[in-house]
Amino acid sequence: MDNKNVNLRLENNSGFLDLGKSKEFNLVSIEGLESADYEINISNNIMYDGGSVVNKRIQCHSISFVGEVFINEDFNIKRQKLISFFNPKNTGYLTVNYLGTERKIKYEIESFKINHPNVYEPMEFQVNLVCANPYFQDTLSLGKEISTWIGGWKFKFKLPFKFKQKGDTKVIISNLGHVETPVEIIFKGPAVNPSIVNLTTGEFIKIDRTLTSDDILYITTEYGNKKVEIENNGVRSNALNYIDLDSTFFSLVVGDNIIEYKTDGLKPESVEIKYRNRYLGV
User: Domain Siphovirus-type tail component C-terminal: where (predicted)?
Assistant: First the structure.
């Protein structure tokens, strides 16, 4: 990859660090942005040629880059900043901008090394990152509401979708990423036994409980972070025990998804679906 067209921003609880053209630190080289490694398990056939594919998986995403610090009056300040920033205790997010395409990924620091053979040459540093979740995501924050109103104004972004009119119970959500992506559902009461159905896949999530007008139902379907919570007067409580046993914590498939909400009574104030497209690389 031509590093001249790549800008990086790393963020953690220590702050942020920029690398690239005309940035605080020069980017010398980078590897691993295209995709993580794949693993395919094949079972050999005993009686026939070849084998059968058992499963496929994407391994953790490894990204490595080399940066550069020029020798000047603030050289040592920058060196100390690097040592402090690349603390292996810090989990962070890497945002990559390549030719205008911008995506982010959560990372852990695997290693950090400085190479400075003499005082006359720029100091180089190499960083190896490992990403347990191998997918890059859109950079839009989940906390920022950019809505598409059915029958109203249309915005460029798809996060989140909001059902505006009382008669509108369905909406088409397009997953423009490379793989399935989980959702966050925000269901503002009142409602009786509210449910969200992905008509494209036939999967649904249903909560066997009545929501008052003061209740807000939150559902997160992300693997390793699945949640069902009800907020009342600013206090959230676990509501996983109210979930219908036939429910599925579904994800949006690649392409169009027809999403519908249902209740056994009462009309909800609003229903929102939040998500981020997921990508194999940048």
Answer: 177-279
**What integer pLDDT is reported at residue 270 of this predicted model?**
85
Q: How far is CA 231 from the centre of its chain?
A: 24
Q: In the prediction, which pLDDT does 152 show?
A: 39
What confidence score (pLDDT) does residue 157 get?
Answer: 45
CA distance 191 to 182: 23
Sequence-distant (6+) residues with CB within 8 A of 233 are: 214
Residues of the chain where predicted confidence (pLDDT) is lower than 50:
141-157
Residue 253 confidence (pLDDT): 97
**Residue 270 and residue 261 in contact, taking contact as beta carbons nearer than 8 Å:** no
Burial label, 54 (beta-carbon count in 10 A; 0-12, 13-18, 19+): exposed
Give 38-99 as a DSSP string.
Answer: EEEEEEEPSSSSSEEEEEEEEPPEEEEEEEEE--STTHHHHHHHHHHHT-TT--EEEEEEET
User: Which residues, 6+ apart, have CB-to-CB distance to 141 below 8 Å?
Assistant: none
- Please report which residue ranges of the chain form alpha helices under DSSP H: 75-85
Domains of the chain: 3-134 (2.40.30.200), 148-279 (2.60.120.880)
Query: Cis omega (within 30 of 0) on the bond before 190?
Result: yes
pLDDT at residue 166, rounded to an integer: 56
Question: What's the rounded Cα separation, in Å, for the pair 244 and 267?
Answer: 20
CB-side exposure of 4: number of CA atoms within 13 Å? 1
**DSSP for residue 160:** S
pLDDT digits (tens, 9 = 90+) for 164-205: 555 568 888 999 999 999 999 999 999 999 999 999 999 999
- Distance, CA of 166 to chain centre: 31
